[in-house]
Amino acid sequence: MKKLLPILFALVLCACNDEKKDAPQGKNLHISGTVKGLRKGTLYIKKIEDTTFVTLDSIVIDGNPDFESYLNIESPEMYYLFLNRGETNSMDDKLLFFAEPGDIHIDTRLDGFFAKAKITGSENQKLYEQYLKLKSRYTDKNLDLIKLSAETSDPKKLDSLDKQHVSLLKRHYLYTVNFAVNNASHEVGPYVAVSELPDAGVAGLQYMDTICKSMTPKVANSAYGQLLKKYVDQLKEEQQEKASIN
């Protein structure tokens, strides 16, 4: 029995150390992570309100590259993690992530703050990364068309490339609509709609209205769900005004 006591005591200590810290009262979002290679600097967690970045929290890094923050979030929303490197500047100083209630973990590096980031704990983030992966195919193809257009002055070739560009754009819009409808129970659905479809021309209203009608009540009441509904109502009103004038 005497031999077992030290072992039992050690197990109790391990169990205590492994216990998750209770979140501060009124906070439903825990963000933690590591910026490997960072020794000094400041991290800022921000979001956009009325086209302006608003700082939600700031974390000073001094020797330890680990960080954490407790926040309150009403509904899933896109947040930004900014890095102020102190004495050195870099264009690679921010990454965006889909925040939602719960525990979100961000692992990244100083030499690849955005490109090497791995974000876990958010279902909306996981779905958004899937969307971006497929969207990149359209982006790459579009860059190829732009390059080919710059390399020729043949009117027929330019006309053909222009038609390919229009066709590619339509496929991208339809992919976005299908993604949003298929993920109507997640806030990422209306988010991609309001961020990707406003420049879709006349068809944009039809696309966004379809997404609006597919949203679940929970998503419809979220920040992006309400934003999408407001935008669709505004477009419908503008169309009615134009029709009455004509």
Note the main sheet: 4 strands, mixed
Strand content: 15-25%
Tell me, rounded to a whole number, the average pLDDT.
88
Poorly predicted runs: 1-20
Number of strands: 8
Helix and strand content put the structural class at: alpha+beta
Summarize the helix and strand pattern as letters: HEEEEEEEEHHHHHH
Tally of individual helices = 7
Give the radius of gyration. Answer: 24 Å
Q: Portion of residues in helices?
A: 40-55%
Please state how the strands of the largest beta sheet are arranged side by side.
Answer: 4-1-7-8
Question: What features would you describe in this structure?
Answer:
This protein is an alpha+beta fold. It contains seven helices and eight strands. It has helices spanning about 5-20, 125-150, 155-180, 190-195, 200-215, 215-220, 225-245, and strands at about 30-35, 40-50, 50-60, 65-70, 75-85, 95-100, 100-110, 120. A four-stranded mixed beta sheet has the order 4-1-7-8, covered by helices on one side. The protein has a four-stranded antiparallel beta sheet with strand order 3-2-5-6. Mean pLDDT is about 90; it is low at about 1-20.
